[in-house]
Design a protein that fits this description.
Order of helices and strands: EEEEEHEEEE
Number of strands: 9
Largest sheet: 9 strands, antiparallel
Number of domains: 1
Radius of gyration: 24 Å
Strand content: over 45%
């Protein structure tokens, strides 16, 4: 029985001046952002059978973010804001070592990416009133094998993974009232990614090792309410026009 307990603290400040011109895509702004994070975490490893180990861990964190944005190109428009959030994540892993060179495992874990502000060109009153980009969450499931052969000269690792994201933070295209387009960070309702990964390495000699990896990935959005239609996409093909 083994355990780990700890705390984490970070306090970050950033400044970002930006200027672009002199003719096309004019921009002249200055932004600052701050982030303060404090967290506590714990993890245990319980070897309940000679070859079986159960690992469980959790983390609780509180993060406060704030910003200022001065747009000199828009008559020195000034915006500021702050937000705070508390979240918890956890992980459970079960592994079984059949031999010193063969181990199978299964893992279930949750993930969290904190809320943030999109401090880029095009920041305006609408973005300020909308508040921060929502936190991103994930739920991940993995099963796999870790193997070694020929006196540990050949290593092969196989992993099957399936992950669901909620409120994925991704860049999107915003069409403004004057018809121009602006790239901005926003939340995608849902994303699912799954696949299989094989990686390995072969020790060919005392000083020569060959390694490689191959992955099959199937990823698709499960919910994207504000996505734009692709060119010539019809209603029957899923274009709702919103």
């Amino acid at each position: 029985f083994r355990y780990t307990v700890g705390t984490y603290f970070a306090n970050l400040s950033f400044g970002r001046p930006f200027s672009r011109g002199p003719v096309f895509s004019l921009a002249n702004w200055s932004a600052t952002s701050k982030s303060r994070q404090i967290a506590g975490f714990a993890q245990i490893d319980w070897q309940f059978l000679p070859k079986a180990t159960l690992t469980a861990g959790g983390r609780v964190q509180n993060e406060a973010v704030s910003y200022t944005f001065l747009d000199r190109q828009a008559n020195n428009a000034f915006y500021s804001g702050h937000a705070e959030d508390t979240a918890g994540t956890y992980k459970v892993n079960l592994r079984y070592e059949f031999t010193p060179d063969l181990m199978l495992f299964g893992t279930y874990a949750t993930g969290y990416k904190c809320q943030t502000y999109d401090l880029t060109t095009g920041f305006n009153l609408n973005r300020a009133l909308a508040g921060p980009i929502k936190p991103e969450r994930s739920r991940d499931r993995e099963i796999g094998a870790r193997t070694q052969f020929f006196d540990r000269r050949l290593t092969l690792n196989l992993t099957l993974f399936d992950t669901d994201y909620t409120n994925l933070q991704a860049q999107s295209i915003e069409t403004l009232a004057d018809g121009t387009q602006n790239y901005r960070l926003t939340n995608v309702g849902g994303l699912k990614t799954r696949g299989i990964e094989l990686e390995g390495s072969a020790r060919l000699g005392g000083d020569v090792t060959f390694g490689g990896a191959v992955t099959y990935l199937d990823a698709h959005y499960t919910d994207y309410a504000i996505a734009q239609c692709y060119p010539m996409q019809t209603l029957a093909q899923g274009c709702s026009g919103s």
